[in-house]
Structures are given as structure tokens and as C-alpha cells.
Task: inverse folding
């Protein structure tokens, strides 16, 4: 699972190398992804709940197979958000905002609904 909800708050779940502290999202197993590290232990960790918009766009067409889009397809807004603490960029859907509402540097936070995590204001 890539996220968890605890006490009504949504958290992304990543992994962190015990040797060099490199953070990964989505979570992974095996070797550290940092090419300068030979660490082999990645521990699950909760990531920042907020960050700043790095980039954004909309998806006006349904994604290709094997994804099954709802009929009729409703366009979605997507944002790449740099997490406050980890400084990694995470791509995700945006709730209740369009591209006209977003700007680079805007702060967003995590929420979830219907089993999906989302960025929101």
C-alpha cells in the first residue's frame, strides 16, 4: 500500500535506506537505489503530508490499456509535488482544483477518499 490513513490524516508510505537515508516513493524492496550506496535494508517510513507544486497538468484523455477508465471519462488534474521534508517529487491526482487554480510553489497537502490518495489545498 502506498498510503495509510491514521487518525483521519493521510500519509504516503515510502522506504528509507538504513545506510545512507535515501528515501524512495513508491516503497521498494531490495537494494538502495542510490548508486553510491551498497545498503540492502530499506525500512518503511511515513512521508511528509505536504509539499509545494513543482509542476502540474491535466489529463484530458483516458489512459491506455491496461488501465480501465470510467465511462464517460472525466479529465483529471495531476500535480508533481516536492515533499517538504524529503525533497523528493511525487506525482498524484489533485482534488477539487484545476490547472487554472494551481501555480508552481503553491502548497498542497494529502487527503484521501474512496481508497485513493489525492493532493488538495
Result:
Amino acid at each position: 500500500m502506498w498510503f495509510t490513513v491514521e487518525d483521519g490524516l493521510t500519509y504516503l508510505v515510502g522506504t528509507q535506506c538504513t545506510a545512507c537515508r535515501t528515501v524512495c516513493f513508491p516503497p521498494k524492496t531490495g537494494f538502495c537505489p542510490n548508486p553510491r550506496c551498497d545498503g540492502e535494508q530499506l525500512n518503511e517510513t511515513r512521508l511528509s503530508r505536504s509539499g509545494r507544486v513543482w509542476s502540474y497538468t491535466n489529463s484530458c484523455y483516458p489512459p491506455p490499456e491496461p488501465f480501465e477508465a470510467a465511462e464517460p471519462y472525466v479529465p483529471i488534474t495531476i500535480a508533481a509535488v516536492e515533499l517538504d521534508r524529503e525533497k523528493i517529487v511525487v506525482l498524484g491526482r489533485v482534488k477539487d482544483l484545476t490547472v487554472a487554480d494551481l501555480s508552481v510553489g503553491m502548497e498542497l497537502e494529502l487527503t484521501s477518499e474512496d481508497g485513493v490518495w489525492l493532493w488538495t489545498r
